[in-house]
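COMPLEX REQUEST
Ligand: NBP
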Amino acid sequence: MTSTPAATAQVGVVGLAVMGRNLARNFAHHGYTVAVYNRTAARTEELMAAYGDEGFVPATELADFVASLERPRRVVIMVQAGKGTDATIDALAELLEPGDIVVDGGNAHYEDTRRREAALREKGLHFFGVGISGGEEGALNGPSIMPGGSAEGYKAIGPLLEDISAKYDGEPCCAHIGPDGAGHFVKMVHNGIEYADMEFIAEAYDVLRSAGLSIEEISATFRQWNTGDLDSYLIEITSEVLDQVDAKTGKALVDVIADSAGQKGTGRWTVQIALELGVPVNTIAESVFARSVSGHADLRAAGQEHVPGPAHSFDPADRAQLVEDVRKALWTAKVVAYAQGLDLIRTASLTYDWNIDVASVASLWRAGCIIRARLLERIRAEYAGHNLPTLLAAPSIIDGIAEANEGARRAIGTAMQAGVPVPGFAAALAYLDQVRAQRLPAALIQGQRDYFGAHTYQRTDAEGTFHTEWSADRSETKLD
Ligand code: NBP
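STATUS: Structure written out below.
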């Protein structure tokens, strides 16, 4: 380009692969003039050829892109997470000026976001790590948006993000989550819960299939469940996937898809960080490990050949009862996964001083994102104005667990007896039983630790720290 373009665009998007292109169009559909730039000019040309009349200012040079933006400049980066994001930020930082706003809408690790935010703050730039959920369709028509960054910067970028976000009862599914990495952290936990939700649905399907229900019957069951408290995007698409017939073989598509589940890493990050922060998220961990087991061909081949056990199929005495019991197991497990994910967010918020409002997090997951579900409105209402130690202490959740308890236990017990793997369901139930136990066998573990490593223990009936002389006369010493 030869002449400097006039600063006419209210927002710019860098990175025009599927997500960036759709987000740019979403901004345009809301009346914004959108500057667009992509490293490889062909993508910009493709966007202009297909949708050039929607309100874009294209640029082939990053400097021209920056020059075409009104001040403070608002730039949304939608490039591959990692090196691509760093390269783009570095190039932009050379061209932007204090007060400008840089948004990373990719799936960045929140620690990277903290590092980038600190580096750009030094230059007087506002950096936002923004979690965006909803896939390509959401990016175009309204995603759930989780922005983390300065309160001052949010005043300039927040209204635009709220405009393009999904709406629930007219309320935007976008709100300022907190500073620096808070938005990307919340998006990561969203994905962790998504892993768990999907695993639970898969386990429910497997139990019903093993009990002799046809794919059509299971699809109809999910459709029915989607009219009640389990109403959610993931349940809805499950019916659609189960209904799909493979054109090549005439079989149900699910029967010809290889049973090895992939992952891109956000579920694993959730578990890694939960381990570091000491927050039990066993349902999410089991979901990540379940995908891992599915991909271990050698392990599974050896298991199929050598490991004894029941037949992975059974004949239920009462089918209708089984279906209802499985629904209760699914609901219970789902609640536990939300409780664990929100607990992780609460703990991270305290650790990093993010001051995250859990009710607000639940509110912006109500539409637009992959885990959107009817239950989230109830969760929002339960957290609003209450400092719950756990979702499991919320009155309506307590009632739900009580109502589902017997059936959920029966379904999980039946599956285990029949050799149907239900690691997610079992983890959820074990967690409930752990947190409600009056006494945990951790007392015995403390005794063992003191025996072999003199790690000491506390007593239930006295203050202080104690050690038993295990290899001598087994008398007890009080250490402080
Ligand atoms: P991709 O993750 O496939 O990335 C492709 C884009 O990154 C292209 O525009 C490419 O430019 C650009 N890029 C790369 Br690769 N390296 C670059 C570099 N060094 N400098 C500048 N640009 C570079 O795109 P996507 O699937 O649209 O996702 C974009 C972001 O959104 C990712 O972080 C992703 O994790 C996140 N996200 C995706 C989804 C989803 O459903 N796909 C959902 C939510 C979030 P080029 O054209 O020149 O190669």
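REMARKS: The first strand starts at residue 11 and ends at 14. The pocket of NBP is lined by residues 15-20, 38-40, 43, 78-81, 83-84, 87-88, 106-107, 132, 135-136 (CB under 6 Å).
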